[in-house]
Amino acid sequence: MSMEQLGRWLSTLQVQWPFSLRLRPWPVVLSLIFLACLATAFLVVATTHATRVQYAQLQQLEQERRQLNTEWGQLLLEEGAWSTPARIEQIATQRLGMRIPDVHDVEVIRP
């Protein structure tokens, strides 16, 4: 079909139809704007949800960190208590039967 024949066909088509077949750009523009608003609203909802989920995870991780720091402090205190000289002396006396020798039990060996 040539351009002239296509033009004649379109003009006869417009006359024969009960409504005029005119392509107006504003319905297309309005449809695109509506779709853009709909997509933007969906993305806002999705982003808000993802932010809330990540914030909940952050709160949980911070709670775990606080708990671990508390346990670490308790372990440091226990380590300090286990390594004191008085505790070592007490365990040596009770479990191993060790004692500090009397003056009479000490022998001095000279070269």
From TrEMBL:
Main location: membrane
Name of the protein: Cell division protein FtsL
Coiled coil: 51-78
Function, in words: Essential cell division protein. May link together the upstream cell division proteins, which are predominantly cytoplasmic, with the downstream cell division proteins, which are predominantly periplasmic.
Species per Swiss-Prot/TrEMBL record: Vreelandella arcis
TM spans (from-to): 26-46
Membrane topology (UniProt): Single-pass type II membrane protein
Keywords carried by this UniProt record: Cell cycle, Cell division, Cell inner membrane, Cell membrane, Coiled coil, Membrane, Transmembrane, Transmembrane helix
One Gene Ontology cellular component: cell division site
Keyword Transmembrane: yes
Pfam families linked to this entry: FtsL (PF04999)
Compartment(s): Cell inner membrane; Cell membrane
